[in-house]
Design goal:
Blueprint: E1 8-12, H1 25-37, E2 42-45, H2 57-71, E3 77-80, H3 86-95, E4 103-107, H4 116-129, E5 134-138, H5 140-143, H6 149-158, E6 162-167, H7 172-181, E7 187-190, H8 196-202, E8 206-209, H9 216-227, H10 231-240, H11 242-249, H12 255-263, H13 280-293
Parallel strand pairs: 1-2, 1-8, 2-3, 3-4, 4-5, 5-6, 6-7
């Protein structure tokens, strides 16, 4: 497996909806084409930003089939397959058609809050049953538990099929420990848009981004500059995004990014309950900031 395919900018895809709640497949196709044109490096389907918990099994299958049909392997595709019932996750892996899928992103078990030994056994079971490489996903604010650096490093060293981690703990000390001690070719990927620049300055390999749904050219340019060590140029882009980062998450994710996509006329702002779509104030503010700050940038 060429892990370099997952260096750079990955995009945690939203799932566009019509006002009546049905999936907007035309909107999804428009989004995918805009991301390819924006020079992102890979896509992540059915993660948190995709509102996966409110999708039915049939909808998930339809989304996967549609996305692979549209992509036609023009970009690598990572599929979110995770949960807090290990055996159900394994069953999902065995039942899914992985044609066109290049890796799995699997979130640490949530709600039942396993200890580190349980987390290790959970991910070893997933890695042993996945037909494609696995990227761990650590997001303590959502799961209620944290993959300690020692746990991540144990999984990295003991499972050949685990190739990296999306780190959204917000803990720079923890992330630094992983970076210092990781095996060769183990990817460390930012899971927090606002921390991507500092984490990459520490040596991380890129980001799986929410913001890049709406701003692919700008985000992917910043990440490419970081990978080339051109931090002064990248820093200027990072600073430009500070207000956008706040707006994206002030009413929750993917509420904010869907507001930005609506302002850009890519897809609508609608989400499914228990989320509610962006307030009028957020919609207006997002449109204002986009109009003011986000002209097209070209890489020179």
């Amino acid at each position: 497996m060429n892990i370099k395919r997952f260096k750079g900018t990955g995009v945690a895809l939203v799932t566009p909806f019509h006002k009546n709640g049905n999936i907007d497949f035309n909107g999804l196709q428009k989004l995918i084409e805009s991301l390819i044109a924006g020079k992102v490096d890979y896509l992540v389907l059915m993660g948190t930003t995709g509102e996966t918990p409110v999708l039915s099994k049939d909808e998930k299958n339809a989304l996967l089939q549609f996305t692979t049909d549209v992509l036609q392997k023009r970009l690598p595709l990572v599929l979110g397959v995770g949960g807090n019932n290990t055996h159900d996750v394994v069953n999902s892996l065995t039942e899914t058609d992985f044609t066109g899928v290049d890796a799995v992103l699997s979130v640490s078990p949530y709600y039942n809050r396993p200890g580190q030994k349980g987390i290790i056994q959970h991910f070893k079971m997933i890695a042993g049953n996945s037909p494609v490489p696995v990227i761990l996903y650590n997001v303590p604010p959502r799961t209620g538990s944290n993959l300690l650096a020692e746990t991540t490093l144990t999984l990295a060293s003991e499972s050949d099929n685990i190739i990296g981690i999306k780190e959204a703990s917000g803990n720079l000390d923890q992330i630094t420990q992983i970076l210092i001690n990781r095996p060769k070719d183990f990817l460390v990927i930012s899971g927090d848009d606002n921390l991507t620049f500092p984490i990459m300055a520490l040596g991380a390999d890129g980001v799986i981004s929410v913001a890049a749904n709406a701003f692919p050219r700008d985000l992917s340019l910043m990440v490419r500059l970081c990978l080339k060590g051109e931090y002064e140029k990248a820093r200027k882009l990072h600073y430009r995004f500070l207000e956008i980062y706040k707006l994206l998450f002030i009413e929750g994710n993917p509420v904010g990014v869907k507001a930005s996509l609506a302002a850009l006329k890519i897809c609508s702002e609608f989400v499914r309950l228990p989320l509610v779509h962006a307030s009028k104030n957020l919609m207006n503010k997002m449109a204002e900031v986009i109009d003011r700050d986000f002209e097209i940038i070209t890489e020179k």
